[in-house]
Amino acid sequence: MADFSYTQDNLRNLAQDVLAHARKIGATACEVDVSEGYGQSVSVRKSEVETIEYNRDKGIGVTVYLGQQRGHASTSDFAPEALRSTVEAALSIARFTAADDAAGLADEKLLAKQSMALDLYHPWDVSVEASIEIAKRAEDAAFAVSPLITNSEGASVSVQQSHFISANSLGFCDGFASSRHYIACSVIAGKGDDMQRDDWYSSQRKGSDLARPEVIGDYAARRALSRLGARQPKTAQVPVLFEAPLAAGLIGSFVRAVSGGALYRKSSFLLDSLGTQVFPEFMQISERPHLKGGFASSAFDDDGVATQDREIIIDGVLQGYFLSTYSARKLGMQTTGNAGGSHNLIVKPGPDDFAGLIRKMGRGLLVTELLGQGVNYVTGDYSRGAAGYWVENGEIAYPVHEFTIAGNLKDMLRHIAGVGNDVLVRGSKQVGSILIENMTVAGQ
Description:
Elements: H1 8-24, E1 29-45, E2 48-66, E3 69-75, H2 80-95, H3 128-145, E4 149-168, E5 173-191, E6 194-204, H4 213-225, E7 236-242, H5 244-257, H6 260-264, E8 285-287, E9 310-314, E10 317-318, H7 325-331, E11 345-347, H8 354-361, E12 364-371, E13 381-392, E14 395-408, H9 409-414, E15 416-419, E16 424-425, E17 429-431, E18 434-442
Helix pairs in contact: 1-2, 3-4
């Protein structure tokens, strides 16, 4: 970790200093997060360098408790005086905060006891000059596909590394380093007055695992070209296929609806759904927090609670919520180790590949882009602007745009007709394309 300004031991010592000072000034409990990160990003447009950005940041967040009164403060100054002031500010806030029955540290017996080597840290030693060259290669490959690729929104390369220590006054103290890098390209295809854009990117923990820049640029260009001549579809009720990158968003909507915050506030369309049929019987969803190199792998959650493998959906039935210590207490339940979110959700793929799902759909809509935020998590009502392709006789017929897809998430999840084996791993959810039996397409 030569390029970090602080070692893990340095961060650990800072955390212990904060906990000691909190104890000294009368806090009944305390938790602290100390983090540091650095990286660089470059972007190129039409072979000219547009931006070069360096980032290096650090911070300490302190939460103190006076019984069940809670106060939080943070600082980016690691000097001893600044740390003491931050702890005192948090304590002062706690004094003026109403007591909350659910506030407090996690139960000691649930805290993670041992570190895990999860292969999350792979610094990418790539110079700015080399990053510029990689971005140019992606963009050049896009322009080489066709003279109809008339413009570019740019290609970019980002390299990021960070590490942290999380600790509390019950003795928990752990942390790790992680990395995440990406290459992206976005281009515009034009024919007469018809202009269409599309993009593609690759994101990995390891720079050497990224897709080749030429492959990214080439694919971004082909996606943009395939959208030329887009028309508005007729209003209809048809099956809708969400391409894999968008399918992850559908699963994200499900996660949000069965997460503690939405449940205890009663702002979820899946209230009291534990043990009920939420998906069709062929659906299986697992949580695997300890996957080597996973984008959401961790031995513990934001509360320091040990994470564990779980089956979230078995044969379509919901087995467990996503709860933090706080939200679990609000619901009279036990934390599931999900403070901070889900950890590597894996949706079991079905037998069909992407082309197989299109054939299965027969006639309907393939969605490759969603616009706007039209999701009501209280009612489940779903309405989003979209773009994609019209499908006839099990084949893509022509591109479509300027329409809305609408339905209700509760019905959409229950009426999934297939999950593809075209799994694309870009984040905490691993899922192939998802085919929904029926939605309203509002066009002309």
